[in-house]
């Protein structure tokens, strides 16, 4: 009963693609689960430019629309779709499909993600949650054998960690509701790049190298991503993925049904239940065709908060990104001495520590977990957290606060026992996931983060289909005690908590910045620090995004020691880093944190698209009219 009540109160616009679709006039294909209009089947003509993309640049200024991604071909695909009359939603899906080819270890149709969208004509925000789900037959107990948690690496590379993929449903949902083009049309650039190939760069090779042993183990991954000699491809090699091209073609022609109810789906289920030959073998999962057929994207209202007179629009649960960012900024709001950057960053680090303590305790899939959203977002709750911040760094782990005391909506009843904050494990790498940002000439904006979770996902390439399945179910808390209860414990059908933080910042009803980043649980801090750089330190977005990063997540970074922040060397070695150490902050070096992209909307009507100049090999920003 309580769960049902909570369900009715969460900001859920619609439970399925066609229930309560308030945008039905924009639906361009029949409600049969397919997008049979494949548009121009001749990917070659319109997208020939993708064969010879220009050298990537991290900043571009101009008009008429803009895009920023980690990859020049993906950015170019977005720009080409805009030039062909597509809007930002169309262009973002086109770019994402190209990234599925060129950035396959971070994202793709084997995974899921979150899109935050601004619809200019209607002046409203929506989000499309296409996060992976646990299969119906999967319980938390499957992560344990003989009462003990299965070795983490064995969970990471297994059928057990594969969530029901949401990406294709999410793309289709976003296009049908808000796009101008069909899924079939916007898949064409991805088909072109998959079939004609692309020249692999250092980033691709490094990603393959880091996964070499994992791919070596699994026959289908070895076949696709390693040479016959079992080596990564060399920088400069042309890499083609005709299997993925054919899979995209099938989806373009047959619609989402091919993926969720047809031959693609069957091969996914087979690969999960009976993983490809591997040495040693991979543990199987329990996904069924019913799980795929029942997968729905969710269109949710975003989290909106206010900071320095700006509206910050972010992703709600099951991502913890929007809420944790909003709580961090709420804690910082009364501090006005932002001219003292070191002091403000000290407070930011402390605020982040406290917000993560709350994140870890309270956030989960809102359809399963009664997240006390209102309390967590209330200024009065932020005040209780701010009261804990002193002029020196806190020591030890921060404990969660009491949002229930500030929750006037009674539906998320206070649990009898405060759930433990389980996510205090060592911080992971930050090389997974990807973020892209797009706007069009009408002013629509898409801030889109999507992922297959770990770099290289589950390492299961679906045989013959050319893409890697996610291991998103590792985003659930998997405590050593199999009976532990927590907000983010796996339950059948549940979505794992995410950190993805696609964000839009508006002032006086006008867009100022759109941004987001990959990087596991450092995503929220990457976005948070960039927002502070931009709004508090008045940095232009390119500088805000390129600045050295620090990430405080209230976690034990080095097992057996105290909680510490992670930071990039340039941050640790800066004057500010030195002063922060004098306040008691401890930093563990992380070579790179995040790989953000963003767009700044300038006063004169121009757009500044921005990608990383250095991190992850540098990204690509472009505008329609420079
Ligand atoms: N699975 C992560 C999340 O949803 C994103 C992947 C990553 O960057 O680690 O938060």
UniProtKB/TrEMBL annotation:
<keyword id="KW-0732">Signal</keyword>
<keyword id="KW-0378">Hydrolase</keyword>
<feature type="region of interest" description="Disordered">
    <location>
        <begin position="394"/>
        <end position="432"/>
    </location>
</feature>
<dbReference type="InterPro" id="IPR043138">
    <property type="entry name" value="GGT_lsub"/>
</dbReference>
<comment type="subunit">
    <text>This enzyme consists of two polypeptide chains, which are synthesized in precursor form from a single polypeptide.</text>
</comment>
<feature type="signal peptide">
    <location>
        <begin position="1"/>
        <end position="20"/>
    </location>
</feature>
<keyword id="KW-0317">Glutathione biosynthesis</keyword>
<keyword id="KW-0808">Transferase</keyword>
<dbReference type="Pfam" id="PF01019">
    <property type="entry name" value="G_glu_transpept"/>
</dbReference>
<dbReference type="InterPro" id="IPR051792">
    <property type="entry name" value="GGT_bact"/>
</dbReference>
<protein>
    <recommendedName>
        <fullName>Glutathione hydrolase proenzyme</fullName>
        <ecNumber>2.3.2.2</ecNumber>
        <ecNumber>3.4.19.13</ecNumber>
    </recommendedName>
</protein>
<dbReference type="InterPro" id="IPR043137">
    <property type="entry name" value="GGT_ssub_C"/>
</dbReference>
<keyword id="KW-0865">Zymogen</keyword>
<dbReference type="InterPro" id="IPR029055">
    <property type="entry name" value="Ntn_hydrolases_N"/>
</dbReference>
<comment type="pathway">
    <text>Sulfur metabolism; glutathione metabolism.</text>
</comment>
<feature type="compositionally biased region" description="Low complexity">
    <location>
        <begin position="28"/>
        <end position="44"/>
    </location>
</feature>
<dbReference type="InterPro" id="IPR000101">
    <property type="entry name" value="GGT_peptidase"/>
</dbReference>
<dbReference type="GO" id="GO:0103068">
    <property type="term" value="F:leukotriene C4 gamma-glutamyl transferase activity"/>
</dbReference>
<keyword id="KW-0012">Acyltransferase</keyword>
<comment type="similarity">
    <text>Belongs to the gamma-glutamyltransferase family.</text>
</comment>
<feature type="region of interest" description="Disordered">
    <location>
        <begin position="26"/>
        <end position="51"/>
    </location>
</feature>
């Amino acid at each position: 009963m309580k769960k049902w009540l909570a369900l009715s109160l969460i900001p859920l616009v619609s439970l399925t693609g066609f229930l309560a679709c308030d945008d039905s006039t924009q639906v361009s294909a029949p409600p049969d689960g397919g997008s049979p209009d494949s548009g121009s089947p001749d990917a070659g003509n319109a997208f020939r430019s993708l064969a010879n993309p220009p050298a990537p640049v991290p900043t571009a200024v101009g008009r008429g629309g803009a895009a920023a991604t980690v990859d020049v071909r993906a950015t170019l695909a977005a720009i080409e779709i805009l030039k062909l009359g597509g809007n930002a939603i169309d262009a973002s899906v086109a770019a994402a499909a190209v990234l599925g080819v060129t950035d396959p270890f971070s994202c793709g149709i084997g995974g899921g993600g979150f899109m935050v969208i601004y619809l200019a004509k209607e002046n409203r925000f929506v989000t499309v949650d296409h996060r992976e789900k646990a299969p119906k037959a999967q319980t938390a107990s499957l992560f344990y054998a003989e009462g003990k948690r299965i070795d983490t690496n064995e969970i990471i590379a297994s059928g057990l960690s594969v969530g029901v993929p949401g990406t294709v449903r999410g793309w289709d949902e976003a296009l049908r509701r808000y796009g101008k083009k069909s899924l079939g049309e916007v898949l064409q650039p991805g088909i072109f790049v998959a079939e004609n190939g692309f020249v692999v760069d250092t980033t691709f090779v490094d990603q393959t190298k880091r996964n070499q042993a994992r791919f070596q183990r699994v026959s289908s991954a070895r076949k696709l991503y390693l040479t016959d000699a079992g080596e990564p491809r060399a920088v400069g090699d042309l890499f083609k993925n005709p299997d993925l091209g054919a899979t995209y073609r099938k989806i373009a022609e047959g619609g989402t049904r091919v993926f969720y109810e047809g031959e693609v789906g069957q091969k996914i289920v087979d690969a999960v239940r009976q993983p490809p030959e591997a040495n040693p073998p991979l543990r199987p999962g329990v996904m069924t065709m019913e799980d795929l057929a029942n997968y729905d994207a969710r269109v949710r209202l975003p989290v909106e908060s206010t900071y320095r007179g700006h509206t910050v629009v972010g992703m709600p649960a099951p991502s913890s990104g929007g809420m944790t960012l909003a709580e961090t900024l709420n804690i910082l709001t009364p501090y006005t001495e932002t001219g003292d950057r070191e002091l403000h960053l000290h407070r930011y680090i402390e605020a982040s520590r406290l917000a993560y303590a709350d994140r870890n305790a309270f956030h989960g899939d809102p359809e399963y977990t009664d997240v006390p959203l209102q309390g967590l977002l209330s200024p009065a709750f932020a005040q209780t957290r701010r009261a804990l911040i002193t002029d020196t760094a806190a020591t030890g782990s921060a404990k969660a606060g009491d949002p229930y005391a500030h929750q006037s909506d009674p539906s998320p009843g206070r649990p009898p026992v405060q759930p433990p904050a389980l996510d205090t494990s060592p911080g992971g790498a930050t090389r997974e996931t990807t973020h892209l940002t797009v706007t069009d000439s009408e002013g629509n904006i898409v801030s889109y983060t999507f992922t297959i979770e770990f770099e290289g996902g589950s390492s299961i390439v679906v045989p013959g289909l050319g893409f890697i399945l996610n291991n998103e179910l590792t985003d659930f808390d998997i405590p050593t005690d199999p009976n532990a209860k927590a907000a983010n414990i796996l339950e059948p059908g549940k979505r794992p908590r995410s950190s993805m933080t696609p964000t839009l910042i508006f002032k006086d009803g006008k867009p100022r910045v759109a941004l987001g980043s990959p990087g596991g649980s450092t995503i929220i801090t990457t976005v948070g620090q960039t927002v502070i750089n931009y709004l508090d330190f008045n940095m232009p977005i390119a500088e805000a995004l390129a600045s050295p990063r620090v990430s405080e997540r209230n976690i034990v970074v080095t097992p057996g020691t105290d909680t510490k922040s992670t930071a990039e060397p340039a941050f640790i070695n800066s004057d500010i880093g030195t002063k922060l150490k004098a306040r008691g902050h401890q930093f563990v070096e992380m070579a790179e944190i995040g790989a953000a992209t963003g767009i700044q909307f300038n006063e004169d009507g121009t757009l500044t698209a921005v990608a990383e100049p250095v991190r992850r090999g540098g990204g690509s920003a472009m505008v329609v009219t420079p």
